[in-house]
Amino acid sequence: MSLDKELYDLVTRLASRLREENWRLVTAESCTGGAVAFALTELPGSSSWFDCGFVTYSNASKQMQLGVPSDALMLHGAVSEPVVEAMVSGALANTDADVALAVSGVAGPAGGTPEKPVGTICLAWKRRGKGVISRTLLIKGNRQDIREASVRWVLTGLLEYLE
Fold first, then answer.
1. What are the structural domains, with CATH classification, of the chain?
2. Rounded mean pLDDT of 46-70?
């Protein structure tokens, strides 16, 4: 598999920014199932700025690997800004990385609710020692469209966060 030119260029710009600051990145993914880490590692030399990725699809793995509080999951659900904020903080707490991103969502085709329809995606970004930024989007399309768009949104958001 390979990335389209637009995504490859986005990853290249992000890599340049991370190398510029000598920062390492960690990812915490749910609905994208590792697609963000895949996109990042398609770039040769990514080991100089990409530390690791967590794919925490279940609530239990979010708690065990990233320290997401059970209260946040019970009160807000896995697809929520409080949970992706906890995911991004946990990713930094469990690695030596400098920067983290997190994504969780309802990719479909099932699983949506009136409050969180299919296409609801929550994203978060954090730099060690700085505050968390999070955002919720509604992406239209099928499962593949939603997952691919989520990868682009979380990487674009990280680049904006770092600049």
1. 5-162 (3.90.950.20)
2. 98
